[in-house]
Structure formats: structure tokens, C-alpha cells
Specification:
The chain has one helix at residues 3-17; strands spanning 50-59, 68-69, 73-80, 82-87, 92-96, 100-102, 109-113, 119-128, 135-136. The chain starts with a helix and ends with a strand. It has a single domain (31-136), classed as Jelly Rolls, CATH 2.60.120. The chain has 137 residues and is mainly beta.
Amino acid sequence: MNKAIKSIIVLFVMMLCVTSSSYSAEKNVSLQTTSTWDNVKYKKLKIKNPEVTVLKIVINVGEKLPMHKHDLVNIAYVKQGTLTVITDENKEITLHEGEALPELIGKYHYGKNTGNKPVELVVFYIGEKGTPLSVNK
């Protein structure tokens, strides 16, 4: 893995783990994986000019996103609601509040809100600077 990516990950983990005598921190692992949700292993990442992006995405009740793909690594954390992700091969997975999803890479899919309140996602993207976060079909 690229040294810059390792440094960013270490810094992020350190920020999460900092504690003070005035409070106690609770730590829960939401996701730790070596593959996407359809069990495709991550390849050795060769990122010369890494860029990290974090997005908050809100999907309203009954709404669905367009069919799209990602050409970089990204992890979605469901802060609120119920999200179902469906591939163009009709494979699907449903996630609930507090769960994280290692997104597909290079495979078309879409997400839809299958719950009764808005879905709030926090999505972390890591890839080569300038790579689009998603590409619509």
C-alpha cells in the first residue's frame, strides 16, 4: 500500500483512539475487511497521487440512486435508515443503521432507500487524485 495512504490511515486511527482523563471513549469496529461485499479481494493498491474524499449522502424515503460504478476503493457507513444495494446482475445486500459496506469496484449497482426514514450515509473514498467518485451507466 502506498506510504501516503498508510500515513492517512494511521493518522485517522490515531485521531479515533485519542483519549483524555476527562472522558472515556467507546470504540467499536464497524468494518474490517480485505474484500468488497461480493467477496472480491482488494488488489495491491498502487496509488501515486492519493486523494481521500469523505461525502455525506442523504437518500430520501423511496428514492433510488442511478445505476453507477466506482473505480476506486470506498466504504459507506449507514448513519441512519435502511439501504439496499442492487447490482446489474440482481445481487443485493441490505444495510441498516450502524453498518458499513465495502463498496463494489468496477461493477454497476445502485442504492435505494427501503426504509421509512431518510438514509444518511458517510462515504469514504480513497483513490488516485482526479478519479471520479462514481460513473453513471
